[in-house]
């Protein structure tokens, strides 16, 4: 069966490419940059996935994107400045929108966004123009807010009643001007990806006559008024996760104990995950972001809170044992031996991990309802057909609907071992691997010992590049 699918894929691929594949040019000219490679990748929340790298050609860096690349925000990493290298700071980078059009941008290495000039691309002309105005607005409104907080809390004779009134009026008018800036963009360019991003950038109006605590309560209550969390293409950006992070910061208070702070964060979790209920895929995306963030911060109680109250209702990967398995999975460290298994392939044949001869193996758990899985599988397929190392993939679906899984695999032309764990999270293999989320990957050596546990396709590429 695997050979038949492989042959069918080879025969039909050129025809499919001729019919549907269209390429788009991405051209960058970066002033004051050495001839070092620029890295191109896609953005999904806080995740960066490598796509390609390029050196200068006639002063330009050139890439190709196609209609197989999802509409969304992409990033070019330009490298570190001299000072950044000394201070171990992040490299210079520029985020842009790709939505099925040629893109040409001229910029400066020292200030990529501020100096960016869009030569070709309606999306990015609208987006960069907004970002520059937004940067100025945020600076001005924060300065006014600091002054308002100061004279509300202190009897400073410098701030006469007339000055206070003028500052409050300027603060209120500035917010109204920003709203007037956003609405025309959305109306004039309703189908642009940039317009959808800009719409979510909307913020509730905060009357400067209110006290600081009253303004804080207002923004908490109305922060998500213009966010529906229903537009799945926006997962191909950081707009949702940035919004969620900013909302959490509204609940952060230095004077609170850990227990008190966790109680405040639970309030934020309730609001956020209630807003995401409209779309299970977006909800799973946000839950994954939160769970990974809390794991890094050691906030196990918040992980448990999400697991117990939101994982199942939101259709997210995992079950009531998610937190336990997440913690137990840490035992499967680099160098330990992966559990053996016997599972049926799509054509009914039995596959055994240990008895399959291959120098390297990738065990991948996935499901057809998982949006992140649908992103990584096509990338793995493209890599698989051009691979230069002896590596076999064991793609284990945890779909309960076997017919839907079989149809999905056949239509997708996946050429590796396509296996199914018929009892989902409670299955023997899922339990042995402490599976708590999809996709989950384990890169193994010929002795079936774990070499790496990539979290995305970029991590997989990084892991195999060192083999």
Percent of sequence in beta strands: 15-25%
CATH superfamily of the largest domain: Glutaredoxin
Helical content class: 40-55%
Rg of Cα set: 25 Å
- Classify the secondary structure makeup into a structural class: alpha+beta
CATH-scheme architecture of the largest domain: 3-Layer(aba) Sandwich
Keywords:
467 residues; alpha+beta; Immunoglobulin-like; 4 domains; 5-stranded mixed beta sheet; 4-stranded mixed beta sheet; 15 strands
Structural write-up:
The protein is of the alpha+beta class and 467 residues long. It has 4 domains: 22-119, Transthyretin/hydroxyisourate hydrolase domain (Immunoglobulin-like, Sandwich), CATH 2.60.40.180; 121-209; 221-316, no CATH class; 333-465, Glutaredoxin (3-Layer(aba) Sandwich). The chain is 45% helix and 19% strand. The chain contains 15 helices and 15 strands. The protein has helices spanning 2-20, 82-87, 122-153, 161-188, 193-200, 212-222, 239-249, 258-275, 280-297, 300-309, 322-328, 371-385, 402-412, 428-432, 457-465; strands spanning 23-31, 38-44, 47-54, 60-66, 72-79, 92-98, 103-108, 117-120, 342-344, 350-352, 360-366, 391-397, 417-420, 440-444, 450-452. The chain has a 5-stranded mixed β-sheet. It has a 4-stranded mixed β-sheet with strand order 4-1-7-8, covered by helices on one side. α12 (371-385) links the parallel β11 (360-366) and β12. α3 packs antiparallel against α4, α3 runs parallel beside α5 and α4 (161-188) packs antiparallel against α5. The longest helix is centred in the N-terminal third of the chain and has 32 residues, at 122-153. The protein is globular and about 85 Å long. 30% of the residues are buried. The model is unreliable at 3-19 and 312-316 (pLDDT under 50).
